[in-house]
Amino acid sequence: MAGTGGCMAGGQAHYTDAALPYADAFTTTASLAAQWLLARKKLEFWQLWIAVDLVAIGIYWYKDLWLTAGLYLAFLVMASQGLRAWLHALREPL
């Protein structure tokens, strides 16, 4: 993930006028990794989505895209609730 993100960020920083190439590359590569973990039903995907949402909120807030930042805040709430539900389900005996 780090290698892919680094390549993406380096390309964005060099070939575009992106305002936040490293943060943007992180959200893209971490989202792909979270989807991969989700497909394998690994608990860690929730924490990765929470990290992506936090970084995305910062990106969109910085760029004055308030509604999009609000959307990612809603995603953050849903991911936090999902993590809590999965942890609760893991603690319950079958």
What features would you describe in this structure?
By secondary structure, the protein is mainly α. About 85% of the residues lie in helices and about 0% in strands. The protein has four helices and no strands. α1 packs antiparallel against α2 (about 20-40), α2 (about 20-40) runs antiparallel to α3 and α3 packs antiparallel against α4. The longest helix has 26 residues, at about 65-90. The radius of gyration is 15 Å and the shape is elongated. The mean pLDDT is about 90.
Please tell me how large the radius of gyration is: 15 Å
Topology as a string of helices (H) and strands (E): HHHH
State the separation between the terminal residues, measured CA to CA: 35 Å
| Residue fraction in strands | under 5%
Structural class: mainly alpha
Beta strands, count: 0
Query: What is the makeup of the main sheet?
Result: none
The low-pLDDT segments are none
Can you tag this structure with a few keywords?
single chain, 94 residues, mainly alpha
Short summary:
The chain is mostly helical and 94 residues long. The chain has helices at 2-15, 21-39, 44-62, 66-91.
Show the helix and strand layout.
Layout: H1 2-15, H2 21-39, H3 44-62, H4 66-91
Helix pairs in contact: 1-2, 2-3, 3-4
